[in-house]
Amino acid sequence: MSKILVTGGAGYIGSHTVVELIDVGFEVVIVDNFSNSTPDSIKGIEKITGVLPKLYEADCSDVLRMRQLFIDEKDIEGIIHFAALKAVGESVEKPLDYYRNNLLSTINMMQMLREFNGRYMVFSSSCTVYGQPDVLPVTEQTPRKPAMSPYGNTKRVGEDIIQDTVNASEGIYAIALRYFNPIGAHPSAEIGELPLGKPDNLVPFITQTAAGIREKLQIFGDDYNTPDGTAIRDYFHVVDLARAHVLALKRMMEGKSRNSYEVFNVGAGRGITVLEIVKAFEKVTGVKLNYEIVGRRAGDIEKVWADTSLAQSELGWKAQNTLEEALLTAWNWEKRIRIIKG
């Protein structure tokens, strides 16, 4: 049984990926500092899988603590690296926090692979590395553009750190998955997206508004060059994204990588406006949302969606769940956590 370290494994995408890893037989070790997550997600993982993964509460940007973790945990074969600050707007206000946390943690993970004979890295990257593309949909060959936020730049530089390290290292392989917009929750409603404080992502803001936690949903901008004036993104189910990490890991472990460093887009492969998401949520849940249009948000781009044909042909991956299924699981999760807290 291969041992995999999942950084940020108590977080939204991390916890769903841990479930998928356990389900196919990996031994999982989680490291998380709970800066934007809670230990409750670990309990949720155990309820879903019947397995309580080993947990280290630590900061991945602390190299001495990470070295001790690797000394304590023998034979970590690979890392799935989620641990990062991820709020676009906040990164504009606090750039140094983002560079310090996101880049140091990535440097440390690559250093640990080299020091302790690890072999595989799956990196949580982002479509933000494409900026506002000249041509849509985005393929893996679409040129990366200067980032529109410090967060986006940490993903771009993070990719470069990993690629350069792989090129200089014998026997280390890496895959960067460029996420588009994961939404939803595990169908069990045991784990889901639970931002601490004010949500930065659209769907938690929608569900919190629907639950009465937020008075009003703010839609940032209605003057974009899109069918209804609101921004376009590529929304897809988080469980589908979690599966992509397992497939990426298996690709490297089974010797199927064409190069020691590879990149894949992961998304639904279609663009949906913010207002279309709002209407779809209202339709699938029967809940009317109170929303208002406000000005554009710093760091946001107008429209982006993925061409996922490479992931389909090489990884055997494509999004399987519908938008409606994703939104319904997000709402079921929101209702469940409000009952628990209430």
TrEMBL record:
Family annotation (InterPro entries): NAD(P)-bd_dom, NAD(P)-bd_dom_sf, UDP_G4E
A GO cellular component entry from the record: cytosol
Keywords per UniProt: Carbohydrate metabolism, Isomerase, NAD
Listed cofactors: NAD(+)
Catalysed transformations (reactions): UDP-alpha-D-glucose = UDP-alpha-D-galactose
NAD(P)-binding domain span: 5-326
GO term, biological process aspect, one: galactose metabolic process
Coiled-coil residue spans: none
Superkingdom per UniProt: Bacteria
MF (Gene Ontology): UDP-glucose 4-epimerase activity
Pfam families: GDP_Man_Dehyd (PF16363)
EC number: 5.1.3.2
Pathway the protein acts in: Carbohydrate metabolism; galactose metabolism
Protein family according to the UniProt entry: Belongs to the NAD(P)-dependent epimerase/dehydratase family.
Subunit text: Homodimer.
Protein name: UDP-glucose 4-epimerase
Source organism of this protein record: Tenuifilum thalassicum
